[in-house]
Amino acid sequence: MEQCDVVVVGAGIAGASVASELAIDHRVLLLEREDAAGYHTTGRSAALFTPTYGPPQIRALTRASADFFAQPDSAFCSTPLIRQRDVMMVAREDQLGTLEHTLAALQRETPVDRLVGSDAEAAQPLLRAGHVAAALMNRDSYDIDVDALHGAWLRQFRARGGRTLLGADVVALERRGDTWRVTTSDTEITAPRVVNAAGAWADELACLAGARPVGLVPKRRTVAVVAVPEGYAGLHDTPMVIDVDEQFFLKPEAGRLLVSPADATPSEPCDARPEEYDIALGIDRVQRAFALEVRRVESAWAGLRSFVEDGLPVVGEDPDLAGFFWLCGQGGYGIQTAPAMSWLAAALLRGEAVPESLLAHGVDPMQLSPARGAARD
Ligand SMILES: Cc1cc2nc3c(=O)[nH]c(=O)nc-3n(C[C@H](O)[C@H](O)[C@H](O)COP(=O)(O)OP(=O)(O)OC[C@H]3O[C@@H](n4cnc5c(N)ncnc54)[C@H](O)[C@@H]3O)c2cc1C
User: What are 93-133's pLDDT values in tens digits?
Assistant: First the structure.
């Protein structure tokens, strides 16, 4: 029987980041069911950092994480974690209301330029002439090197004395007095605290522990990889384009285009696979907006973005079950918010004050608490 201070379940970006943070002053064990730590949602993202995305608390967590991405400690990662990528939200004539509403919300927080359709077409030459009536351009957005980021947290965790067990499926969680007994496929561990960073499986893990689920809904999102059309060789550095109602996105990446119908289909927690229908829908939607005739899909993948009802993450100790700590519901923003989420989670777990650097950006732990209405009803 192994003993430690904290068991973290799930070694995606959430588990790796908080485990590394806690390993500064705790004996931490990180348990992952799969043989590869980033196998599920963390390894399937669109790898974008943008302060324009998501509800206000997500944007606050994103802003609070920005410096970490921009200036990583060289001991943490010797290569850059981000590369600048403009993000342009586009609207047709009938979507201008949403665009103005979005502009009003964002312009207090981050530099956003309003472009007329012809300027949007000049910035992203693949757009069909006349499709876009107006657009919002944010130049403070970035591609994230997710592998480098996740790998750096796992390395830092190890260097701080933490241990990761891969192929360790948590099958039982039992509270005895003030200690958890965690049973995996082939070992038993005791610890006073368990962090639930199980991604799409977070409610299942909670049920194993006897905690009330927070109503997490995993939602499938599909991405297809297609070739850049002939004559558009310079497309690599052009903006990622997102429909203002999130009906599609297109992102230049590694000499190819990532295209998505921005689907959000409720799913059981599982090893998500792309459906032919969603791939076809994504291609249809981007072909309407861009001068693109897709003849072949080079590859495609799907992943689960998990949400509770109000769309905000769930961070904090369970209100009814001592020592059971939630870190889930990151939706479509779990990479760009991971630094701030890990600092918040670690401060709450240590019983410390929430760092000023988070509060200054408007992060509000009460809105993210597992005790709030959306996570309890
Ligand atoms: C298509 C797509 C595009 C996205 N784009 C972006 C983006 O551009 N920017 C951004 O910030 N975010 C994006 N996201 C969201 C982001 O990827 C997620 O929010 C984030 O990866 C969630 O990380 P996680 O660690 O919570 O989950 P996961 O990476 O899924 O990790 C959870 C882990 O827990 C393990 N686990 C579960 N149950 C158990 C158990 N009982 N025992 C042991 N292990 C267990 C699982 O095996 C899994 O590895 C995107 C997601 C998708 C699908």
Answer: 999 999 999 999 999 999 999 999 999 999 999 999 999 99
Q: Domain spans of the chain?
A: 2-48+146-215+310-375, 86-140+217-307
Q: Which atom of ligand 1 is nearest to the CA of 37?
A: 49
**Conformational region of residue 36, where left means phi above 0, alpha means psi within -120 to 50, and beta covers everything else:** beta
Q: Which helix (H) or strand (E) holds 153?
A: helix 146-159
In this prediction, residue 374 carries a pLDDT of: 83
The answer, yes or no, to whether any atom of ligand 1 lies below 6 A from the CB of 222, is no
Fold of 2-48+146-215+310-375: FAD/NAD(P)-binding domain (3.50.50)
Residue 342 DSSP class: H
Model confidence at 1: pLDDT above 90: no
Q: Is domain 86-140+217-307 in CATH 3.30.9.10, yes or no?
A: yes
> For 231-243, what is each residue's pLDDT tens digit?
998 899 999 999 9
Position 376 scores a pLDDT of 79
| Cα distance between residue 36 and residue 41, in whole Å | 12
> Does residue 34's CB lie within 6 angstroms of at least one atom of ligand 1?
yes
CA distance 141 to 336: 10
Pull the structure tokens for residue 183.
């049973």
CB of 253 closer than 6 angstroms to any ligand 1 atom = no
Shared fold status for 2-48+146-215+310-375 and 86-140+217-307: no
Alpha carbon of 190 to ligand 1 centroid (Å): 26
**Is any ligand 1 atom within 6 A of the Cβ of residue 339?**
no
Q: Summarize pLDDT for 255-271 with one digit per residue, the tens.
A: 999 999 999 999 999 99
